[in-house]
Design brief:
With 400 residues, this protein is α+β, with helices and mostly antiparallel strands. The chain has 2 domains: 11-184, no CATH class; 287-400, Histidine kinase-like ATPase, C-terminal domain (Heat Shock Protein 90), CATH 3.30.565.10. It has 11 helices and 5 strands, in the order H-H-H-H-H-H-H-H-E-H-E-E-H-H-E-E. It has helices at residues 11-40, 47-66, 81-101, 109-119, 122-143, 149-231, 236-262, 275-280, 303-324, 353-358, 363-373; strands at residues 289-295, 328-335, 339-346, 377-382, 388-395. A 5-stranded mixed sheet has the order 1-2-3-5-4. Helix 4 (109-119) runs antiparallel to helix 5 (122-143), helix 6 packs across helix 11 and helix 9 (303-324) runs antiparallel to helix 11. The longest helix has 83 residues, at 149-231. It is rod-shaped, with a radius of gyration of 43 Å. This is Oxygen sensor histidine kinase NreB. GO terms for molecular function: 4 iron, 4 sulfur cluster binding; metal ion binding; phosphorelay sensor kinase activity; protein dimerization activity.
Length: 400
């Protein structure tokens, strides 16, 4: 059993995961800053203001996604820029006041960097991150009792890292969205092309089936009924025989029509009858003797190959009956190890090769199409006054 596909993490999934981490970090840092302030500055006049501003900042941060203040990747129907900027301005202003009252709240700036990058356009977000970084450096210097170079280097380094990570992930998400769009468009175009090709192939198959079966049966019926009409008064017995033969052909044509509707195998191949038996039973019409020869040891053939060879034989005999004026036709089915060959020869009038190339009707092109679909070849040799030999060669294993 095939294992189900493993879930694939996209760049937007990574961004959502990073957003969750940043949200959790913001509240942890905010809570730690409040606890640090209460432990070190209990009972001071600014304490109620710090607590109130901390609660206000937490509420603003929570209400941000609810009012559509932040965008997610991939971007879908972004809210109005004014609402986003207003929300971010309130968050930053509240945080700035907190940092002025208690510089230890500057540690909350890192999640705010990410929030700014998710809320504003890239250039505006970079400018805001730079201003927040300057403010963080100033707050850290206020807390320090002595000059520390790390206070000047660490905040800009963290801000640059956060910006680089977000910009990289956003670009990766955009590229992935473009790739997915291209794949979806290509898949739709491929599906449309396959549908068109399938429709054309089915039309060609049906046209060949109708030509090789129903059209040939109708042609035979017409010839027989015309012959019966000419001999009806002078030779009633012969006329009735023609009518009975036409009736039999009509029954076979009806069976062919039903087969086309149900897309079944040719009726001559049903009930376990092999290709050799079906070819042996073919008839070219009144006045034409059909002989069948089998060479080599028969091997099982694919259904498509048997059906194609039978249809080619039927089409070739129809051409013999209608155009060749022949008295005999010979069918030879040869199994030659790696291929099967069907030869149809007649002693009729023949024709020039230029006529064969130009194509008088649908019969020869249909035969070539059938053989080509099975990876085989169809050759025709004919000389005026010396008959025609048609040879269909089909490999027993399909070629690539």
């Amino acid at each position: 059993m095939r294992n189900p596909p493993r879930p694939h993490l996209t760049a937007s999934d990574d961004t959502r995961g990073l957003a969750t981490v940043m949200h959790a970090a913001f509240f942890l840092l905010l809570g730690a800053s409040v606890a640090r302030f209460l432990l070190r500055h209990p009972g001071e006049p600014r304490t109620p203001w710090v607590i109130a501003l901390s609660i206000a900042l937490a509420l603003l941060y929570v209400l941000g996604p609810a009012v559509g203040a932040t965008r997610t990747l991939p971007a879908t129907a972004p809210p109005t820029p004014l609402r986003r900027r207003l929300w971010l301005g309130l968050v930053v202003a509240t945080w700035v006041v907190l940092v002025v009252l208690a510089p230890s709240f500057a540690w909350c700036a890192v999640p705010l960097f990410f929030t700014a990058l998710r809320t504003l356009p890239p250039r505006a977000a970079v400018v805001l991150v730079a201003l927040l970084t300057v403010f963080v450096v100033a707050a850290q210097l206020r807390l320090s009792t002595a000059f520390d170079p790390n206070l000047l280097v660490a905040p800009p380094a963290v801000a640059a890292l956060a910006t680089a990570v977000f910009v990289h992930m956003e670009r990766q998400a955009q590229e992935q969205r473009a790739l997915i769009d291209d794949l979806i468009r290509t898949r739709r175009e491929l599906a449309a092309t396959e549908r068109r090709e399938g429709t054309l192939a089915e039309r060609q198959r049906l046209s060949m089936e109708i030509h090789d079966t129903l059209a040939q049966h109708l042609s035979s019926q017409q010839m027989l009924l015309q012959a019966a009409d000419r001999t009806w008064e002078s030779d009633p017995g012969t006329a009735r025989a023609h009518v009975r033969t036409a009736t039999d052909i009509t029954a076979r044509g009806l069976a062919e029509a039903r087969r086309l509707v149900h897309d079944l195998a040719p009726p001559e191949l049903e009930n376990g009858a092999g290709l050799a038996e079906a070819l042996r039973a073919l008839d070219a019409g009144p006045g034409i003797e059909v002989r069948f020869h089998l060479e080599g040891a028969p091997v099982p053939l694919p259904d498509r190959a048997e059906s194609a060879l039978l249809r080619i034989a039927q089409g070739a005999l129809a051409n013999v009956r209608e155009h060749a004026g022949a008295r005999t036709a010979a069918l030879t089915l040869s199994f030659l190890g790696d291929q099967v060959v069907l030869d149809i020869a007649d002693d009729g009038a023949g024709f020039a090769e230029t006529r064969s190339a130009s194509g008088r009707g649908h019969g020869l092109p249909a035969m070539r199409a059938r053989v080509r679909q099975l990876g085989g070849t169809l050759t025709i040799e004919s000389t005026p006054g010396e008959g025609t030999v048609l040879s269909a060669v089909i490999p027993l294993e399909p070629t690539r």
